[in-house]
UniProtKB/TrEMBL annotation:
<dbReference type="GO" id="GO:0046525">
    <property type="term" value="F:xylosylprotein 4-beta-galactosyltransferase activity"/>
</dbReference>
<dbReference type="GO" id="GO:0030166">
    <property type="term" value="P:proteoglycan biosynthetic process"/>
</dbReference>
<dbReference type="InterPro" id="IPR003859">
    <property type="entry name" value="Galactosyl_T"/>
</dbReference>
<dbReference type="Pfam" id="PF02709">
    <property type="entry name" value="Glyco_transf_7C"/>
</dbReference>
<dbReference type="InterPro" id="IPR027995">
    <property type="entry name" value="Galactosyl_T_N"/>
</dbReference>
<dbReference type="InterPro" id="IPR027791">
    <property type="entry name" value="Galactosyl_T_C"/>
</dbReference>
<feature type="transmembrane region" description="Helical">
    <location>
        <begin position="12"/>
        <end position="33"/>
    </location>
</feature>
<keyword id="KW-0735">Signal-anchor</keyword>
<feature type="domain" description="Galactosyltransferase N-terminal">
    <location>
        <begin position="63"/>
        <end position="150"/>
    </location>
</feature>
<protein>
    <recommendedName>
        <fullName>Beta-1,4-galactosyltransferase 7</fullName>
    </recommendedName>
</protein>
<keyword id="KW-0808">Transferase</keyword>
<keyword id="KW-0328">Glycosyltransferase</keyword>
<comment type="pathway">
    <text>Protein modification; protein glycosylation.</text>
</comment>
<comment type="similarity">
    <text>Belongs to the glycosyltransferase 7 family.</text>
</comment>
<dbReference type="GO" id="GO:0016020">
    <property type="term" value="C:membrane"/>
</dbReference>
<feature type="domain" description="Galactosyltransferase C-terminal">
    <location>
        <begin position="155"/>
        <end position="231"/>
    </location>
</feature>
<keyword id="KW-0472">Membrane</keyword>
């Protein structure tokens, strides 16, 4: 896991560059998985995870918000998106006076992408010092300044289906979701069992529903799906959408029946 702490100061372009370049060298939490062999659906739970202690920067006097936000960004090999994401979101949050730090959770092993685990790790790393987290895609930039990142009393789905450029099903809670520490803990975070791209957020939706948490969404947005967010597309973006066995159907089942199952385990 690579971590960036963005200070609450207006940066010059050079300082951005310095910060961004140092991203590659800063703290890396290595999920010590065994190397993936021929089994593309190897979804074993990591045996060891190394933790690094993270302390927030002292609160800037310029920022008035009393809650502290950890922006958790699952990441792998999209450096050009990061170059755009960090300065942009940092500035966006400063304009809203949000007391925040940005954490880039960099998966460095050879396993399939596990967004859920990265977010869980980010939460564990930050929970003592931050009051809420934003589970944030690296390729989604908020454009409308009404998109509020303030402390959410209930889970707040910023990238709502009527605003997200691509996904518009009712139970969609991916993209950007704000959730406070208590609620994240209440539902025991996300399922670690989703490998590859997608579905873990659908299961998280069920967790929130089962805990009777109301998911709220922005209400005063006059922009639409094409101009509320900017979706950054890397040049050769490939998504690992291979599903393990009938993972998709099982997830649907989970959502329909509101039952939890162990997904994508080794058979
Ligand atoms: C509406 O937008 C403003 C910013 O213009 C923001 O402060 C406020 O929280 C928003 N209200 C809701 C319900 O999202
Ligand atoms: C969720 O919303 C319902 C109806 O608006 C309300 O009765 C309930 O108290 C809310 N639950 C929480 C946890 O806020
Ligand atoms: C922001 O919210 C206000 C109401 O709070 C609304 O009048 C305005 O149209 C919104 N602006 C945008 C760009 O969504
Ligand atoms: C967004 O789409 C609407 C119609 O769907 C169109 O009128 C508008 O110009 C589009 N805006 C942008 C920024 O592309």
């Amino acid at each position: 896991m690579t971590v960036i702490r963005a200070k609450h100061v207006r940066f010059s372009f050079t300082s951005y560059l310095i910060i961004l370049v140092s991203v590659m060298f800063i703290i890396t939490v290595v999920l010590s998985f065994k190397l993936l062999t021929v089994d593309q659906c190897n979804c074993a739970v990591p045996e060891t995870i190394r933790y690094y202690e993270i302390k927030p920067k002292p609160k800037s006097k310029l920022i008035s918000s009393k809650h502290r936000l950890a922006v958790l960004v699952p990441f792998r090999e999209r450096f050009e998106e990061l170059l755009e994401f960090v300065p942009y979101v940092h500035n966006f949050l400063n304009n809203q006076q949000i007391n925040h730090d940005i954490f880039i959770l960099n998966q460095v092993d050879a396993y399939r992408f596990n967004r859920a685990s990265l977010i869980n790790i980010g939460f564990l790393q930050t929970k003592t010092d931050y009051d809420y987290v934003a589970m944030h895609d690296v390729d989604l930039l908020p454009l409308n300044t009404n998109l509020s990142y303030t402390y959410p009393e209930t889970p707040f789905h910023l990238a709502a289906p009527n605003l997200h450029p691509r996904y518009n099903y009712n139970k969609f809670i991916g993209g950007i979701l704000l959730i406070n520490r208590e609620h994240f803990q209440l539902v025991n975070g996300l399922s670690n069992r989703y490998w590859g791209w997608g579905l873990e957020d659908d299961e998280f939706y069920v967790r929130l529903k089962d805990a009777h948490l109301n998911i709220t969404r922005p209400e005063n947005i006059s922009t639409g799906t094409n101009n509320t967010f900017r979706h950054i597309h890397g040049k050769d973006r490939k998504r690992d959408t291979t599903k393990c066995f009938n993972q998709r159907e099982v997830t649907r089942n989970v959502i329909d029946k509101q039952v939890f199952m162990m997904l994508c385990t080794r058979f």
